[in-house]
Amino acid sequence: MLQSNIIGIDLAKNILQICHISKHGELISNKAVSRQKLKQILANQQPAVVAIEGCGSSHYWGRYAEEFGHDVRIISPKKVKGFLQGHKTDANDALAIANASLQIGLKTSKPKNEEQQTLQTLETSQLFLSRGITSLSNHLRALLYEYGIVSTVGVKGLTKAVLETLDEASLLPECLRSTVNQLWIIYLNLKTELAQLIKTKNGLVRQLQPCKALMGLESVAEVCAGMLYSSIGDGKQFKNGREASAFIGLTPKQHSSGGKVFMTGIDRAGGIKELRSALYQGALSYICRLADEPKTAKQAWLIKLVQRAGIKRSCIALANKTVRTAWAMLRYENKYKQQPLLAI
To answer: Per residue in 136-190, pLDDT tens?
Structure first.
């Protein structure tokens, strides 16, 4: 017998499906409700396990359910798919979510708080604007190239080519000059908005106490600190630092059978690619500036590791150690202290 009831929710914009299973394993109800009705059910229901599929607004509903004492479990859609029986319907989806939450060993997530979600939103918005700038610059280069105007590599080359094109009327048809001018104005506005967004995000990171503590780590500044905090949170959903590092994708993949253990490289396709890339770049910057004579135990370890394994593997090792240390700092609310070289 279960300790509490199970509430599986299939989220949507307006009509949501809620599946209610008793602590004895019996199906109580499986019906569609409105957003307001779901809020009433969560508020009036005794503390239960609320299972939600990881999708849009899952963190919002998870935080709302936690306000009334519910145990919220956010489950990956790939893991829910294995418990789907019958056709693809809202009722079957809600039932599959509820059944998945009962499985032993199934990894689930906790809802992000508003600070974490705000940082994550700013990060994804920055990525969106950055890709938009790159896409628009490539479009401008291709447009000018079709009329024999070649721009050199870099922002300066594009700026020079566009301004010269707009100044000389003979380089482009008159009907295209206004179009290029409009595209160029949009490009400049996007760059301004991106700079303002980065400034806002970095200001928020410097205000948050967990992020300020993380910035004490080697190779960690505003970018990595904000992404680490938005991904790991308070660290309670991970048993140890290795789980947090595996979640980000910085631990080797394992393929074992018959008692034989075989370790491969890190999973480049999984994890959080943006955070892994930022940690690698920060580690590379720190390792390339290492002095010949180490001052701390970590610097001595890195110098020996670079000599033995090379710079790239050392960067991954430092990024792995950074995530594990960050998890310990967030989990136990400790400050980072460098280990003196004499303490080895």
So the answer is: 999 999 999 999 998 999 999 999 999 999 888 888 888 889 999 999 999 999 9
State the DSSP H helix or E strand holding residue 16, giving kind and residue range, or none if neither. strand 15-21
Element (H, E) at 98: helix 90-100
Question: Could you give the 3-state DSSP secondary structure of residue 33?
Answer: strand
The candidate with the shortest Cα–Cα distance to 71, out of 132, 128, 152, 6, is 6
For tokens 């480049």, what's the residue? Answer: 268
From 44, 45, 17, select the one nearest 33 (Cα to Cα): 17
Q: DSSP states of 289-324 as a string?
A: T--SS-SBHHHHHHHHHHHHH-HHHHHHHHHHHHHH
| Three-state DSSP state, 32 | strand
Cα–Cα distance measured from residue 204 to residue 185, given in angstroms and rounded to the nearest whole number: 29
pTM of the model: 0.87
How far, in Å, CA of 51 to CA of 95, rounded? 10
Q: Which pair of tokens denotes residue 53? A: 């599929």
The whole-angstrom separation of Cα 122 and Cα 228 is 14
Q: Which two tokens stand for residue 152?
A: 């050199």
Per the CB < 8 A criterion, the answer to whether 38 and 79 are in contact is no
**How far is the C-alpha of 171 from the C-alpha of 230, rounded, in Å?**
49
In order, the DSSP letters of 2-15 are -SS-EEEEE--SSE
E-strand spans in 132-287? 252-257, 260-266
Angstrom distance (rounded) from CA 148 to CA 218 = 49
Domain chopping of the chain, boundaries: 6-100, 114-207, 218-343
Q: Which CATH number fits domain 6-100: 3.30.420.140, 3.40.50.1980, 2.60.120.260, 3.40.50.300?
A: 3.30.420.140
